[in-house]
């Protein structure tokens, strides 16, 4: 007695299209697991500050290592994919206010912010009041959650790497 052999599946254009769609949805759901709401919020804030995905890739520490292409794909998905955008927004809204504050404290400095910080002389001994005054004079330039202490720490880093105007 011979057993019948199952015919090999023929890939019709419709079947190939469905298989491709299922692979794409698999990719989307895989990414949904890697990108945490905190990562999305950090990505959005960092891009709004720097307007540069490469700077975000180099300067932001996410919950796991993402390469530049993954960051670009996630940014475009947040902007143009209504499903991913909606899910990400819902998840970010559920973040605890303390978690949001912690994320916002990690946001990169913009070029305009650093430009103002370079004006504080390297030979001066600026106090927190100096940076507080800078915040008050330029509220439109500095990220809303910046503190005088954060400015001071960043200024010290810039001074250490000779990035201030009066340094060579």
Written description of the protein model:
- By secondary structure, the protein is mainly alpha-helical.
- The protein has two domains: 27-105, no CATH class; 111-161, no CATH class.
- It has helices at residues 13-34, 37-50, 53-59, 68-80, 82-93, 97-105, 111-118, 128-137, 148-160.
- The longest helix has 22 residues, at 13-34.
- The protein is elongated, with a radius of gyration of 24 Å.
Mean pLDDT: 87
How much of the sequence is in beta strands?
A: under 5%
User: What number of structural domains do the residues give?
Assistant: 2
Low-confidence stretches: none
The protein's oligomeric status is: single chain
Order of secondary-structure elements = HHHHHHHHH
Give the count of helical stretches.
9
InterPro entries: MCRS1 (IPR037912), MCRS_N (IPR025999)
GO biological process, one term: positive regulation of transcription by RNA polymerase II
GO cellular component, one term: MLL1 complex
GO molecular function, one term: G-quadruplex RNA binding
Descriptors for this entry?
168 residues, mainly alpha, 9 helices, 0% strand
